[in-house]
């Protein structure tokens, strides 16, 4: 696990950065003292940035913390937030200067030490954080978080870490610190907008339990109270120094057990915002009559694919993979099942990404029954095709439709096999025990073309669950990582993406136009490309 | 009676041990990796898994794990989940809500169910009887999730008569979910009491009472009802226990912050500590409920003696 | 249920059940419900006779089309022919309902009547064991059992999927039948006819089977007819929670569940499977009522 990222799809969606973007100037007539409530799921982990990688906790921490960089609302590009500057000459040693005068909610100053201590704590193996592996590119990670030679369930305990702190982090002065990576990595500054990179106050290191009960951040909102299973209340941090000051006062994150019930509340104006409407609202475009002008839409940075297990026959057969891809009628499924809220994908890199080039997948991502049959015949396979998916994230409908599309086009037995829970599904994926092709998807961790290729397809990469391996592709990525300029890097990454079309390591399906909804109380509420509410934009009538 | 009570309380011990052990084994031992899927779509860091296995004693033999767990439970410590939330505190926050919902449902079920059952039982094969028969059948044959969903959709979304979800669990707000929860059992209660009444109303003691010249209302109200309600009471008692833990679907649809939602979420996210904790509490509640029902027998039916 | 009754009726042509059969024959309700059940059983046995099409044929372009001459019940969201699906779904629903009820009633009432008659330590042990199973609320217990069973493999065959659901329903429900039977048996034990039989020196076995069983069977019978419907419904609830029957098994529960999401745009996809479910449950309960009244000497 060299570079761990998460692909949070069903239960877990990741990447949250604190509300950002250029503030809208028109605040006339909006109620700046109002409170709003937004949809949330119960956080599964303590509210500590380095220890939360699922969406229920991320929505809270997003509002509580501001990191070094944040991703703009307009194009998801990183902009400096707490960072004054991040400089490097060799993509290996980064010098970070942070803005002075920022304070945590308890009044203590945010210094470079707050970042370095937080990062060291998160990366330190014995602290057993979920976000620890995000620091694996920093020099000295192996010493603070050594691998367990026989796995966590093996009899040998994990070896004791040789160091307590990452040797690659160094505090220069109160507002400066340096980061040394073990390998050059040009897009590193883009990656650190993820919240596991947030700073932590002194109070956390003194009394962790007290901090978890009452988190102290440096972001636009302060923690007020939490009633587990029901709601979390936050309020505006009036001493906030950043320029993404909220234009309303109280933020309540209401816990819902199902998106259907949240939607019912949204329609009745009992809930102010929900970033993704459930299937029953999308069916027959009912949401248009239910919500009218309260619908908020936006193309978001996630995609849906079918992963192919290279360790299970016959999915290691390239002709078969092509045949399957060409047998899926993406156009019809996105129209019928998703009511046009998905766009058929024509490659592996997301269209919103800087450097995206259309048609990278070529003919293999187009519905073509004749060619599909041809390739299928070439593959020599005649048995049944199996598609596995968990069903707790609204995946049942499209997965069944995909299986039926393959069945009808190729005239082969194609079965959809549902799994109850994401956990079980994930367990089999991780253990490489999939007996057929399976649902997979990706939400960008950070907005870089690299994030759509390396973690998913490089040999041995953290989310390369299908065990795809192509040395030429790996070499191309390595070349791109070390490229001198961003343009060169993009060109090389695109060449790498082109190689994927020959191999079809996964079948791209579609990208998402997310349909969100707001209550009639909200004048403005924008959706962020990372599929969350842009808190900064919210104006209450 | 005191001896009987003591004996019953002692009898609860093996039941408690049996149930908690079964659940413990099912939750912790069988499903393999407990911590898959806890870290989004990637493997959890090995250090995290190692720490969690340590925390829940997963490397001990099963009997020792269970003994340790039980030891803590006896001391009132139900443990904490992998996310550091105290199980008992969580149960304490959600249980009163579920209890309230269950009581509302039980009341609706008992009042409507028994009334319908008694009325139709007294008028065997009359119009009222058929009406009760058909309407209870209708309720039985529709799964609760459909009833709940349709009620929410029609009255909450389309007509706007009720709030679609329960934001604060007051008695009034719980009426609609309570009704939905009760709908299935209401039909059972109606049918059970109907069967019981129509059987008993030809019993000798009823004839005797009528022959004595007692007024019809007294015969029905005191003699007949009291004797006919025994199976109904059994059912209601069992049902309250079921409501307390089985309101998962109703609580989910109406977003009631109760035990059902908590435990379902915990099962799906493989939060073993929470599942075992909640079930342990529910089992205790259930055992006490059963005892109560059995004591009620003796009160209702003088023919039954506990000695 | 029917088979059981018929068998019993053949066994004792002139006894209690013979009389019951006699009175049943004259009741139209009995014949109507039997006809419906027979129809459902035939559908379950030979679905292709009623719907020759392929239940798994989905054409997405006809998604959510309403009923027409080609497709009597219309098409669902995936473009499946609803009529064909409903007919083919009968088997799983009936099998789950019947097997679960049979298991619950046979096990539950056998244990219950013995516990009620013998009392003492047998009653104590049996009641405690029942408490262990019934102490866990039904849906919760089913969720725990099924997630545990499901965790091992993702892709299992239809027989295993159905067996899991039947097993979890039966394991969690037998104590209900047992408690009803036990309560009735406790009351019956105090009745004169049992005391008389005992005074005449009848063996416990004879007392239980000849005297108590016919007199105690009514409440359990009522329960079982209702339970059968409830189990078919429970199957649907478990599908709703994502742990019950699922692909490749098609049942009314699976159909109702997938239709619920689209009830606002395609109500017909909910209406027809729900209608079949209601009709079947209705038939079973009416049959149960008729049989109960026929069996019970007091009601005749």
Give a verbal description of the structure.
The complex is a heterotrimer of chains A (541), B (307) and C (300). Chain A is 27% helix and 22% strand. Chain A has 541 residues and is α+β, with helices and mostly antiparallel strands. In chain A, the strands form 5 sheets. In chain A, strands 11, 12, 13, 14, 15, 16 and 17 form a 7-stranded mixed sheet that branches. In chain A, a hairpin with a 2-residue loop joins strand 6 and strand 7 (176-180). In chain A, helix 16 runs antiparallel to helix 17 (486-503). The longest helix of chain A is centred in the last third of the chain and has 18 residues, at 486-503. Mean pLDDT of chain A is 87; it is low at 1-27. With 307 residues, chain B is an all-alpha fold. Chain B is built from 12 helices and no strands. In chain B, helix 8 packs antiparallel against helix 9. The model of chain B has no long low-confidence stretch (mean pLDDT 81). Helix content of chain C is 74%, strand content 0%. Chain C has helices at residues 2-11, 16-25, 28-45, 47-50, 82-118, 120-134, 138-150, 158-189, 192-199, 204-240, 252-260, 268-295. Chain C is globular. The model of chain C is unreliable at 1-13 (pLDDT under 50). Chains B and C meet through helix 1, helix 5, helix 6, helix 7 and helix 9 of B and helix 6, helix 7, helix 8, helix 10 and helix 11 of C.
In short:
The complex is a heterotrimer of chains A (541), B (307) and C (300). In chain A, 27% of the residues lie in helices and 22% in strands.
List keywords for this structure.
heterotrimer, A: 541 residues, 7-stranded mixed beta sheet, 4-stranded mixed beta sheet, globular, C: mainly alpha, 12 helices
Strand content of chain C: under 5%
Instruction: Give, in order, the helices and strands of chain C.
Output: HHHHHHHHHHHH
State the shape of chain C: globular
Oligomer: heterotrimer
The average pLDDT of chain A is: 87
Radius of gyration of chain C: 22 Å
Q: Poorly predicted ranges of chain A (pLDDT <50, ≥5 residues)?
A: 1-27
Q: Indicate the percent of residues in helices of chain C.
A: over 70%
Tertiary shape of chain A: globular
Percent range for β-strand residues of chain A: 15-25%
Number of strands of chain A: 19
- Termini gap of chain A: 48 Å
Radius of gyration of chain A: 23 Å
Q: Average pLDDT value of chain C?
A: 83
């Amino acid at each position: 696990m060299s570079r761990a990222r998460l692909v949070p799809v069903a239960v877990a969606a990741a990447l949250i950065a604190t509300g950002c973007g250029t503030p809208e100037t028109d605040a006339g007539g909006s109620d700046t003292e109002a409170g709003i409530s937004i949809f949330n799921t119960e956080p599964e982990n303590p509210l500590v940035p380095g220890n939360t990688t699922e969406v229920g906790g991320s929505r809270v921490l997003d509002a509580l913390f501001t990191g070094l960089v944040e991703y703009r609302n307009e194009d998801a590009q990183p902009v400096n937030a707490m960072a004054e500057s991040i400089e490097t000459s060799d993509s290996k040693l980064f010098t970070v200067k942070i803005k002075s005068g920022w304070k945590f909610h308890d009044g203590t100053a945010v210094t470079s030490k707050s970042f370095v201590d937080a990062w060291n704590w998160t990366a330190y193996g014995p602290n057993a954080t979920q976000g620890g592996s995000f620091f694996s590119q920093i020099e000295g990670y192996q010493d603070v978080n050594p691998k367990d030679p026989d796995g966590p369930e093996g009899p040998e305990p994990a070896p004791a870490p040789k160091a307590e702190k990452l040797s690659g982090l160094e505090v220069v002065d109160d507002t400066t610190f340096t980061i040394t990576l073990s390998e050059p990595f040009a897009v590193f500054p883009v990656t650190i907008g993820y919240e596991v990179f947030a700073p932590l106050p002194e109070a956390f290191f003194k009394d962790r339990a007290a901090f978890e009960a009452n988190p102290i951040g440096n972001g636009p909102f302060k923690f007020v109270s939490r009633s587990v299973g029901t709601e979390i209340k936050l309020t505006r941090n009036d001493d906030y120094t950043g320029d993404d000051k909220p234009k309303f006062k109280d933020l309540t994150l209401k816990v819902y057990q199902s998106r259907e019930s949240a939607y019912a509340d949204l329609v009745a104006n009992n809930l102010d915002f929900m970033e993704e409407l459930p299937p029953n609202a999308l069916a027959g475009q009912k949401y248009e009559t239910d919500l009218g002008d309260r619908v908020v839409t936006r193309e978001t940075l996630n995609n849906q694919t079918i992963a192919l297990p290279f360790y299970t026959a016959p999915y290691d057969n390239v002709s078969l993979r092509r045949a399957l891809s060409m047998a899926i009628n993406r156009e019809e499924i996105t129209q019928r099942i998703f009511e046009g809220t998905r766009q058929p994908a024509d490659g592996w890199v997301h269209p919103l990404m800087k450097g995206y080039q259309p048609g990278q997948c070529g003919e293999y991502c187009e519905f073509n029954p004749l060619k599909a049959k041809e390739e299928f015949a070439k593959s020599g396979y005649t048995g049944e095709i199996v598609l596995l998916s968990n069903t707790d994230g609204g995946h049942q409908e499209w997965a069944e439709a995909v299986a039926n599309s393959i069945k009808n086009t190729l005239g082969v037995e194609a079965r959809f096999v549902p799994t109850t829970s994401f956990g079980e599904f994930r367990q089999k994926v991780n253990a490489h025990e999939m007996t057929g092709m399976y649902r997979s998807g990706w939400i960008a961790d950070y907005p870089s073309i690299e994030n759509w290729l390396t973690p998913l397809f490089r040999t041995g990469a953290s989310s390369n669950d299908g065990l795809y391996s192509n040395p030429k592709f790996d070499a191309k990525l390595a070349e791109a990582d070390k490229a001198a300029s961003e343009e060169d890097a993009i060109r090389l990454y695109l060449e790498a993406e082109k190689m994927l079309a020959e191999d079809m390591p996964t079948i791209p399906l579609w990208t998402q136009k997310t349909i969100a909804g707001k209550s009639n109380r909200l004048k403005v509420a924008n959706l962020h490309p990372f599929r969350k509410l842009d808190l900064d934009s919210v104006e209450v009538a | 009676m005191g001896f009987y009570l003591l004996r019953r309380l002692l009898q609860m011990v093996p039941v408690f041990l049996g149930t908690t052990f079964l659940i413990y084994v099912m939750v912790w031992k069988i499903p393999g990796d407990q911590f898959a899927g806890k870290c989004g779509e990637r493997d959890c860091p090995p250090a995290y898994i190692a720490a969690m296995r340590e925390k829940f004693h997963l490397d001990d033999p099963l009997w020792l794990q269970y003994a340790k767990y039980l030891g803590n439970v006896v001391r009132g410590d139900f443990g904490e989940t992998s996310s550091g939330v105290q199980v008992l505190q969580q149960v304490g926050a959600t249980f009163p809500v579920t209890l309230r919902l269950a009581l509302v449902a039980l009341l609706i079920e008992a009042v409507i169910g028994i009334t319908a059952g008694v009325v139709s039982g007294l008028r065997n094969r009359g119009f009222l009887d058929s009406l009760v028969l058909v309407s209870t059948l209708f309720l039985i044959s529709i799964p609760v999730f459909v009833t709940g969903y349709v009620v929410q959709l029609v009255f909450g979304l389309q007509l706007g008569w009720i709030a679609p979800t329960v934001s604060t669990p007051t008695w009034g707000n719980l009426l609609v979910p309570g009704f939905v929860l009760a709908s299935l059992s209401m039909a059972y209660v109606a049918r059970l009491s109907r069967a019981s009444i129509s059987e008993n109303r030809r019993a000798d003691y009823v004839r005797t009472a009528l022959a004595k010249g007692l007024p019809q209302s007294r015969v029905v109200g005191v003699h007949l009802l009291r004797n006919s309600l025994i199976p109904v009471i059994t059912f209601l008692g069992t049902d309250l226990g079921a409501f307390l833990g089985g309101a998962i679907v109703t609580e989910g649809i109406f977003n009631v912050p109760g035990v059902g939602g908590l435990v379902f979420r915990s099962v799906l996210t493989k939060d073993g500590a929470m599942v075992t904790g909640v079930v342990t509490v529910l089992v205790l509640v259930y055992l006490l409920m059963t005892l109560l029902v059995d004591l009620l027998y003796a009160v209702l039916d003088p023919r039954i003696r506990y000695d | 249920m029917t088979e059981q009754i018929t068998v019993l009726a053949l066994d004792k042509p002139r006894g209690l059940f013979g009389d019951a059969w006699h009175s049943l024959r004259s009741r139209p309700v009995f014949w109507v419900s039997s006809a419906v059940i027979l129809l459902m059983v035939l559908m379950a046995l030979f679905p292709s006779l009623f719907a020759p099409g392929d239940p798994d044929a989905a054409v997405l372009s006809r998604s959510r089309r309403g009923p027409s001459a080609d497709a009597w019940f219309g098409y669902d969201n995936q473009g499946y022919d609803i009529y064909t699906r409903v007919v083919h779904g009968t088997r799983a629903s009936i099998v789950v309902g019947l097997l679960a009820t049979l298991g619950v009633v046979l096990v539950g009432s056998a244990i219950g009547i013995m516990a009620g008659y013998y009392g003492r330590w047998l009653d104590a042990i049996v009641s405690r064991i029942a408490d262990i199973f019934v102490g866990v609320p039904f849906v919760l217990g089913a969720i725990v059992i099924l997630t545990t069973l499901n965790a091992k493999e993702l892709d299992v065959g239809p027989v295993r999927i159905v067996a899991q659901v039947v097993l979890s329903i039966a394991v969690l429900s037998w104590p209900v039948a047992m408690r009803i039977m036990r309560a009735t048996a406790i009351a019956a034990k105090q009745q004169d006819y049992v005391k008389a039989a005992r005074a005449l020196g009848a063996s416990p076995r004879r007392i239980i089977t000849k005297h108590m069983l016919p007199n105690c069977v009514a409440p359990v019978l009522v329960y079982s007819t209702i339970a059968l419907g409830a189990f078919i419904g429970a199957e649907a609830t478990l599908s709703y929670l994502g742990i019950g029957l699922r692909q490749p098994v098609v049942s009314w529960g699976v159909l109702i569940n997938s239709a619920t999401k689209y009830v606002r745009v395609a109500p017909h996809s909910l209406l027809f499977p729900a209608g079949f479910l209601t009709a079947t449950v209705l038939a079973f309960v009416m049959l149960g009522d008729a049989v109960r009244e026929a069996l019970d000497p007091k009601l005749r």
